[in-house]
């Protein structure tokens, strides 16, 4: 069972990651600084970081620091350029192939904790006050769908695709002032996915995710 001290620090760490902008590499502040920011001990922080790392929310590089997101696949050379990895169209086609299938599997296999995580991500995404917060919760939402499949190979596939997506798409990150409008399309689309997965409806889950990815893709292409 997770110690209360570590769990409390983990909750504070989650809130910090959702509400604060990190640098372009997604690197977290040093441990000593994080302790001061969160008001926790070094031991509690390390437990929180261990929890976050085990869930794929952060990864650590010895000598370089702690970074937001999943550890990049080491088989993909970091020297490859965005153009060598994929084009936006290729990312879109891959997402339309993979993510609806993940949603279908999630509807069959999601645990109670998975469903709670999906609801939390959808709610926090709607409450985001700026685009960086929204994108963090959006990224977490889509990984939660993958994790809800209870299939480590599918999660690995998603993480590899998501790493490339973040390079290709986030590299063109919007610079709009403010945050998502109240009628942002993803809010209702995320909620439709959550509802379908919660209802254990594989076909509707797949359909809801396909509609969502298709809408995101069309808006991305129209903005370029």
**CATH-defined architecture of the largest domain:** Up-down Bundle
Morphology:
globular
Report how far the terminal alpha carbons are from each other: 48 Å
Gyration radius from CA atoms, angstroms: 17 Å
- Low-confidence regions: 75-83
Report the count of strand segments: 2
Into which percent range does the helicity of residues fall? 55-70%
The major pleated sheet works out as: 2 strands, antiparallel
The proportion of strand residues reads: under 5%
* SSE string: HHHEEHHHHHHH
CATH superfamily of the largest domain: GntR ligand-binding domain-like
CATH topology (level 3) name of the largest domain: Four Helix Bundle (Hemerythrin (Met), subunit A)
Give the CATH class of the largest domain.
Answer: Mainly Alpha
Compute the number of helices. 10
Q: Please tell me the overall pLDDT.
A: 83
Strand line-up across the major sheet? 1-2
Number of structural units classed as domains? 2
Topology overview:
Blueprint: H1 4-19, H2 31-38, H3 42-54, E1 58-61, E2 65-68, H4 82-85, H5 88-109, H6 112-127, H7 131-147, H8 152-168, H9 185-198, H10 202-223
Antiparallel strand pairs: 1-2
Helix pairs in contact: 1-3, 5-7, 5-8, 5-9, 5-10, 6-7, 6-9, 7-8, 9-10
How is this structure best summarized?
The chain is mainly alpha-helical.
Explain what the structure shows.
The protein is mainly alpha-helical and 224 residues long. The protein has 2 domains: 4-68, Orthogonal Bundle (Arc Repressor Mutant, subunit A), CATH 1.10.10; 82-223, GntR ligand-binding domain-like (Four Helix Bundle (Hemerythrin (Met), subunit A), Up-down Bundle). The chain has helices at 4-19, 31-38, 42-54, 82-85, 88-109, 112-127, 131-147, 152-168, 185-198, 202-223, and strands spanning 58-61, 65-68. A two-stranded antiparallel sheet has the order 1-2. Helix 5 (88-109) packs antiparallel against helix 8 (152-168) and helix 7 (131-147) runs antiparallel to helix 8 (152-168). The protein is globular and about 45 Å long.
């Amino acid at each position: 069972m997770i110690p209360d001290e570590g769990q409390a620090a983990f909750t504070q760490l989650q809130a910090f990651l959702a509400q604060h902008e990190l640098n372009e590499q997604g690197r977290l502040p040093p441990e000593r600084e994080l302790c001061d920011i969160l008001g926790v001990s070094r031991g509690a922080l390390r437990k929180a970081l261990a929890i976050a790392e085990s869930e794929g929310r952060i990864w650590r590089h010895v000598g370089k620091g702690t970074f937001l997101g999943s550890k990049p696949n080491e088989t993909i050379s970091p020297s490859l350029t965005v153009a060598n990895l994929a084009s936006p169209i290729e990312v879109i086609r891959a997402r339309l192939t993979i993510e609806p299938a993940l949603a279908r599997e999630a509807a069959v296999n999601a645990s109670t904790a998975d469903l709670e995580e999906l609801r939390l991500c959808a709610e926090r995404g709607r409450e985001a006050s700026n685009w960086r917060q929204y994108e963090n919760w959006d990224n977490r939402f889509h990984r939660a769908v993958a994790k809800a499949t209870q299939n480590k190979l599918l999660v690995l596939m998603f993480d590899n695709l998501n790493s490339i997506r973040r390079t290709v798409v986030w590299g063109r990150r919007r610079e709009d002032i403010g945050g998502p409008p109240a009628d942002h399309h993803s809010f209702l689309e995320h909620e439709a996915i959550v509802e379908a997965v919660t209802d254990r409806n594989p076909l509707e889950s797949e359909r809801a995710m396909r509609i969502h990815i298709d809408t995101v893709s069309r808006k991305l292409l129209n903005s370029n």
